[in-house]
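Support request from a user on the community tier.

User writes: "When I paste my structure tokens into the form, the page sometimes reloads and wipes my input. The last time it worked, I copied everything first. Here is what I submitted, just in case something in the input itself triggers the reload:"
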């Protein structure tokens, strides 16, 4: 296993260079993990993904958020390009257990 612990810039950050450099570094770390390892990215990626049908292969059907944000686009691009999924949205949970902050 290779575990990558992350904390992405928040949506309120207006400097897109920070967000771009974060995802470039994440891609670099992910791609440099040993090829035989199962890679796990864990942490707070500060993304809200919506329930659009086009995203079903990577986000599942159990997303809590009614809308998406700009960070979500970067996250979706990352997971789709690496053929991975966002596991927290694949399994059914009560809505009270899906939210981590308000």
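"...and here is what came back when it finally went through:"
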């Amino acid at each position: 296993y290779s575990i990558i612990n992350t904390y992405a810039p928040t949506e309120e950050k207006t400097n897109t260079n920070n967000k771009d450099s974060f995802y470039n570094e994440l891609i670099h770390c992910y791609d440099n993990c040993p090829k035989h390892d199962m890679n796990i990215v864990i942490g707070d990626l500060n993304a809200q993904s919506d329930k659009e049908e086009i995203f079903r292969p990577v986000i599942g059907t159990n997303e809590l958020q009614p809308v998406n944000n700009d960070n979500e686009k970067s996250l979706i691009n990352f997971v789709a390009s690496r053929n991975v999924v966002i596991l927290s949205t694949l399994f059914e949970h009560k809505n009270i257990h899906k939210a981590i902050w308000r």
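Agent notes: The reload is a front-end session timeout and is unrelated to the input. Residues 60 and 90 are 4 Å apart (CA to CA). The two ends are 33 Å apart (CA to CA). Escalated to web team.
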